[in-house]
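Annotated sample (chain length 411).
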Amino acid sequence: MKCRHCGTELSRPFLDLGVAPPSNAYVTADRLRAAEVWYPLRLLVCESCWLVQTEDFVGRESLFDADYAYFSSVSTSWLAHARRYVEAMIARFDLDAGSTVAEVAANDGYLLQYVAAAGIPCYGIEPTASTAAAARSRGIEVLERFFGVGLADELAAAGRSTDLMVANNVLAHVPDIDDFVAGFVRLLKPAGIATFEFPHLLRMVAESQFDTAYHEHYSYLSLTAVRRVLAANGLAIFDVEELPTHGGSLRVFAQRADGGVQATAPAVAAMLAEEATAGVASWPFYAGFQSRAESIKNDFLSFLIEARRRGDKVAAYGAAAKGNTLLNFAGVKPDLLSCVIDRAPSKQGKFMPGSHIPIVAEDHLRADRPDYVVLLPWNLRDEVSLQLRYLKEWGGRLVTAVPRLQILELP
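Output written by the structure step:
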């Protein structure tokens, strides 16, 4: 395989999680006895541009289909994050009724609803029919397409160029990262701004967050690699912020290299220096990640097996993609984990891909009263700990497996 950005032949393995079905391919009851498609889940490192990437086996149309089940608005903390972002961008870049905002991967309108409420014209681009329909129900205009140069040129020709383009947790999800980024240059106004949010590779490696690897994530991003990708496609980074979301993310601010007016903030050089000190552009930074992932898997399996031997009941909370990575890597089935509780109606009544663990509504939790609840989306531990503090009524405990096995103190 060649690097999806610079074309260098890839030979350095970073992580091998065996084989797994796509992490958001939830199984309906009538498909339980049908064959599932499993693909190798391997990550490689490009030693030219240092872009970490999933080995190609499955196309985007298979992953982001009409039944896509991830709805951003389910998380209250993520809604609050989106609202704060919109307020900050309006203030920083003087956006008003004469501006235009577009969001790529607009999902269910979780963010653009706040842009529209502020009286700023906006539209979303979202290829999945399920989430696009949810956004339209909020009154958001959505183009149900994949984004790239072709669509950007169409929109620009139609007079729909933008002052702000938002790309939250999508840069890692595109197989052709160059075509995707080049589309921003085509659609931005000369002084327009683009922001990209993505999980930070530095945090992934430092905190052994191997479960953020799944087929939908084609790339795993450092500022070092992202700066090269953006520069090669006509965008210049002028600021960067660290965020607590998704276990540690970056928000990158970029402008057109041929017309941007924003001064470069010191934070850019500071983050690049931090990555250089950590060794992001050298192989030793990546070595050893595989063994840490295997240790986490073994500790998790030991916990589940010992709980079963004691006769304790164990359930899980949050049918998240990262949870599917963990469960399938560890080979966990319903005998060790009875069910997964999830608040999203789009997932309830279905089964986790690969493991076939049933996904149920939260009322099941109070009825069944498990001894332990494994929090699969560990990045939401603060939000979920508050939601599930009632576990204390029967002595239930909340557990995380990544980055280490830990029994949490409930508030």
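Annotation: The two ends are 48 Å apart (CA to CA).
Annotation: The longest helix spans residues 289-310.
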